């Protein structure tokens, strides 16, 4: 049978573990706000820049574009990629914010303070839902970026 001191040590260890988890979650929240998915945005932004430069050259009459629909679709897909990536940043932020709230309720429960079990379950449900959407949107962003690159490469190949 455990003594009262051993129980307090276990509770203290568990409490400190939740505090650490809360701090890590806050760091992830800040990370979500500060950092957009740089690689996807850089590649998609570069793709859009290449399209604009190609269109500018086309207007000067130096090149003839026979497959302009590939160029236009590539640009639209890169733009959709950036939009879906931006929305995934918002859903990621929401997931982390709700996880912070869940952990704060858990800490109140461990401290013996009043806590709202219903709200805690609601926070947990929101975390699961926002994480699901973040994953879906990230997959969409990556897929759109690859399709945009493929269309741009096909367009470039047909120019040669």
Automatic annotation (TrEMBL):
<feature type="transmembrane region" description="Helical">
    <location>
        <begin position="136"/>
        <end position="159"/>
    </location>
</feature>
<keyword id="KW-0472">Membrane</keyword>
<protein>
    <recommendedName>
        <fullName>DUF4199 domain-containing protein</fullName>
    </recommendedName>
</protein>
<feature type="transmembrane region" description="Helical">
    <location>
        <begin position="36"/>
        <end position="52"/>
    </location>
</feature>
<keyword id="KW-1133">Transmembrane helix</keyword>
<keyword id="KW-0812">Transmembrane</keyword>
<feature type="transmembrane region" description="Helical">
    <location>
        <begin position="72"/>
        <end position="93"/>
    </location>
</feature>
